[in-house]
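Internal tracking record. Fields below are filled automatically when a chain is submitted to the structure queue. Please do not edit lines marked as system-generated. If the sequence contains nonstandard residues, flag them in the REMARKS field before resubmitting.
Queue: standard
Priority: normal
Entity type: single polypeptide chain
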Amino acid sequence: MSKRRVAEQTGTLSDFSHEDDATASGTVRRGLEDHLEGVAEQARRFSCQLPAEIAGDVALAALCHDLGKADPRFQALLHGGNPWAKGPLLAKSGAMPYGRAAFESARRRSGYPLGARHELLSVRLLESAPELLGRAHDPDLVLHLIASHHGHCRPFAPVVDDQKHLEVSLDLWEQRLTANSATGLERLDSGVAERFWRLVRRYGWWGLAGLEAILMLSDHRRSEWEENHSMGGAQ
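SYSTEM-GENERATED OUTPUT FOLLOWS
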């Protein structure tokens, strides 16, 4: 039985999104930077027939889609809920618990907020790096693709009650990225919904959905490749 099927039966999949953090991140151990760069390369292949500006924006969104996993509490969750675990930032981990009870127990130990969404923090982290976001031809598109790559923010972001929010920082690609884990993107005045409707008018219903699909499938196919080319968890 596939891991996804197990997750469906045990209730770890979201009712409002095609995947949640448990199924998206509970595979084999993989470093964050390696995963981001791999998804970006996959996105470049999938979007090679698009205009160069749009293809570049899809690749940039892919490069930054999981930045929010740098939250130390999410890293603890990737280590089975161990808040004292150390090591390089991970995107994936075989230690991510499966099953509702096991996942909830690990989440509480890690301190990761109930219902938290790493993709929302990814948006804020990218916004904190103007040189990196400045590579975008359409920053709205890049930010939306990141925010929506698990099916949310079309148009509203989910509410996350992060009562013990913290500053999250990481250094990647000679950039320092910093953002508060309480993103505020669930607010009606956050601009998330307005950005979605601007992009619908700009690219069309199916055009925007197609661009979202490229990022989602790039993430899926890279994750599949990582599982099939695992080197005993050494990555």
